[in-house]
Amino acid sequence: MSQYKTTIGLEIHAELKTRTKMFCSCLNDFLETRPNVNVCPVCLGHPGVMPTINRKAIEEVIKLGLALGGEILNHSRFDRKSYFYPDLPKGYQISQYELPLVKGGELSGVQVRRIHLEEDTARLLHEGNHSLVDFNRAGVPLIELVTEPVIDSALKALEFGKEVQLILRYLDISDADMEKGQMRVEANVSVAPAGHEELGTKVELKNINSFRAVKNALVHEIERQKELLEKGEKVIQETRGWNEVKGITVSQRGKEEAHDYRYLPEPDLPPMELTTPEVINLEELRRSLPELPEAKRERFKQEFNLPEKQTDVLIGDRYLAEYFEEAVSEFLALEENGKSKGIQLVANYLTSDLVGLLKESGARIQDTKATPENFAELVVLILKGDVSSRIAKVILREMAATGMDPNEIIGEKGLTQISDESEITNTVEKIINENRDAVESYKEGKTNSLQFLVGQVMAEAKGRANPQIVQEILKKIIEK
């Protein structure tokens, strides 16, 4: 099985989040649950209607092209792609073929062939033995990014897809949520004997709707083709779908070629001249690009020296990364001492505790009431030992719910840390008397027993005792 080479090319579709659809003024509203509300004669494909080009959608595709280092073509146009399917109102799709908006580009070592713009189809809902059509999605602007066939494994294809999703979100041109159908992945897969210059027979995997499915479908299809070749059988050029339940790819139809779609220039839309500043100002669009994930990832590694997994969590959400930087800046303005430890604490409490609270409520980081300033203030209190880890979690939950300052919460909730040695000593003696086995275990050299006793004291003090003083007093009394 190892004597074969795998070649994968990806086609990634993503819905743009423009206010209106691609060729009409109907709202582009994915939150609309009522069927066939955002429709008009244009997106329903009525005879005699005239489409108009959504300028914002053009600009957003160009932004993606600039972000990936692609060539913005001087001349571009729309074409008709003819095929029949129940979710296609006109019997053809307005797309791009010979003259896309963007040619070339590169991301994570994968070469991009083209990025073009088209209209999305309607949505089919299958119920029992009949199907319903919802045209709300028909005409929504849809990016299609096509790579060169240069990816050699399912894992690399998965990583590329995730990075594209991240860039779409950083550019704020698509939410690219695969579960909501805002991003779909198709893959062309071929397997050939190692050493052969020619690629194997291409099989297309259509409309994969989750990253888990992307990886599983590719792994299965690669193995399926290898097994066929091992048996001396031929791989058939076809389109296959992914059956999530059975964990297999299944044949759907013969693979179409470009001539099957009978492409022709769209007669109702003019060709586009893109290099004139009065039409599309490329330099202005270039200046509007944010710092992209790859550059931000590298900068975070250099500036903050965080563990790789923690960096990935922060970079995985543009607004979470921005919140982190603001909180670090506020922390350094409040407290210069313990810089590296403080930055690590900001990252720890942000990526675990605050993100955990957001997941509980289904909120986003930009929705939280806990400001970066107050978050930094809480980290300073933790670093100075003024609040314990347990109390910090209580304070953070209150901050996220109310937006209050941590010191206000401490005063209002009576969470001031106990550092009085006599008060702590009384609690320590009580815990020692109740946990003689743990005391003996610590005397025998089992250091974990000391941490157990510290935890018991902290629980008895409802998290308010200073943990460092607790540990010192425990050691002192046990040694006596």
Could you give the count of β-strands?
17
Chain-averaged pLDDT: 91
Structural class: alpha+beta
Distance between the termini: 68 Å
| Structural Rg | 29 Å
| Structural domain tally | 3
Strand content: 15-25%
Helix segment count?
Answer: 15
3D shape: elongated
Low-confidence stretches: none
Largest sheet geometry: 10 strands, mixed
Helix content: 40-55%
In short:
With 480 residues, the chain is an alpha+beta fold.
Provide a descriptive summary of the structure in words.
The protein folds into three domains: 4-287, no CATH class; 293-413, no CATH class; 421-479, Arc Repressor Mutant, subunit A, CATH 1.10.10. Helices cover 41% and strands 19% of the residues. The chain has 15 helices and 17 strands. The chain has helices at residues 55-67, 154-170, 211-230, 282-287, 293-304, 308-315, 318-334, 339-361, 372-383, 389-402, 406-413, 421-434, 436-443, 448-460, 467-479; strands at 4-15, 71-72, 75-76, 79-82, 92-95, 102-103, 106-107, 110-119, 123-127, 130-134, 141-147, 183-193, 203-208, 238-243, 248-254, 264-265, 272-273. Strands 1, 2, 6, 7, 8, 11, 12, 13, 14 and 15 form a ten-stranded mixed beta sheet that branches. The longest helix is centred in the C-terminal third of the chain and has 23 residues, at 339-361.
